[in-house]
Design a protein that fits this description.
Distance between the termini of chain A: 68 Å
Number of helices of chain B: 11
Distance between the termini of chain B: 56 Å
Number of domains of chain B: 1
Order of helices and strands of chain B: HHHHHHHHHHH
Radius of gyration of chain B: 21 Å
Largest interface: A-B, 40 and 41 residues
Strand content of chain A: under 5%
Oligomer: heterodimer
Structural class of chain B: mainly alpha
Shape of chain A: elongated
Number of strands of chain B: 0
Largest sheet of chain B: none
Shape of chain B: globular
Order of helices and strands of chain A: HHHHH
Largest sheet of chain A: none
Helix content of chain A: 55-70%
Structural class of chain A: mainly alpha
Strand content of chain B: under 5%
């Protein structure tokens, strides 16, 4: 009796592991398929050149949109750091960046085209 | 926490990357995969050199792993206790020591990049199990260079999709872990059923198995 209980427990764990393998593999496959079409969110840790690269927009456009003169040669300050330097709330700055990106996408020949 | 670390890497590049991966390798739960993908994206943007990034990440990780190994081997039970409490329970270390003895080098290699959450445990357990240091260094360095090259290259290739890519890799890691568990459990189940299906006539009546069956 004890032997069958052990076998049943190992069998159950095996079935769970197989189900987990298929579930996560399916999820990974679906996400990988959507990779090219998903909108990439803006996060406070991102720098303006990073956001610009992700959305295929010139960094100068985004810097101009938030009224920042970029430091030379590479201004890699994060959005949070920029907000701190400009004494403005982070969500407000992120909103302005998103607005600039949307405007760029809808421009004729813009990033979204 | 991860936001600050990602901002550090984004702003300071290689030195920040080195420090963070070294601390993570000792056992701090930091989002290293995402950091490496972001580093790959920075390579694609020209903000970081590819070989420098791979070299810095590998060196930092190996340094952290060596610290974990040294603590396990020479730190004494009190220090091992304190460090293992940082990322779990001391009791989990014992099964890891058995795994190190069973898997050896390939186990160390795989936990550097494929099942990386187990990495700090394996470092400590390799030390406490007195796994030969030169072999540990070899498999460790091989695994860390593989992991750094893989994740940074992925980040470079999908440089404009880093957030989504992290989700894909997270699911893939779980899928691989579940697959490994399925293989081990399947083998155990097969071996168990074969053992129990053996005719009792072939079992030596003095053997412990036969005595257990009569109980």
């Amino acid at each position: 009796m004890r032997r069958w209980r052990t076998a049943l427990l190992i069998g159950l764990a095996f079935v769970l592991a197989v189900a987990g393998t298929f579930t996560f593999a399916y999820r990974a496959g679906r996400r990988a398929h959507m990779l090219r079409f998903e909108n990439q969110p803006i996060r406070p840790w991102m720098s303006v050149p990073f956001i610009a690269h992700t959305h295929h927009v010139p960094p100068s456009e985004l810097f101009a949109a938030i009224g920042v003169q970029p430091r030379e040669p590479h201004d890699r300050r994060s959005v949070r750091r920029l907000a701190h330097d400009l004494r403005r709330p982070v969500p407000e700055l992120m909103g302005e960046l998103q607005h600039a990106l949307d405007a760029e996408v809808h421009k004729p020949g813009g990033a979204g085209k | 926490m991860s936001d600050q670390l990602l901002a550090l890497v984004s702003q300071y590049g290689a030195p920040a990357l080195f420090g963070i991966v070294a601390i993570a390798a000792i056992g701090a739960p930091l989002p290293v995969t995402l950091l490496l993908i972001v580093a790959g994206s920075m390579v694609s943007q020209g903000a970081l050199n590819l070989w420098l990034a791979i070299g810095v990440v590998s060196a930092g990780s190996v340094l952290g792993d060596q610290c974990g190994y040294a603590i396990g081997r020479w730190g004494g039970p009190a220090l091992v206790d304190r460090v293992s409490r940082l990322f779990g329970k001391r009791a989990r270390l014992q099964p890891m020591e058995q795994k190190i003895r069973a898997w050896g080098g390939p186990g160390i290699f795989v936990t550097r990049w494929l099942i990386s959450p187990l990495g700090p445990w394996i470092n400590l357990a390799s030390g406490t199990a007195a796994y030969p240091w030169h072999r540990f260094v070899f498999w460790d360095a091989l695994g860390e260079v593989t992991g750094a090259a893989l994740y940074i290259s992925l980040g470079k290739y999908f440089s404009d999709r880093v957030i989504s890519l992290e989700g894909v890799l997270g699911d893939l890691t779980w899928a691989v872990a579940a697959l490994l568990a399925a293989v081990v459990l399947g083998y155990q189940l097969f071996a168990y059923l074969r053992r129990t299906a053996r005719p009792s006539a072939n079992i030596d009546p003095r053997s412990p198995e036969s005595q257990a069956e009569t109980e």
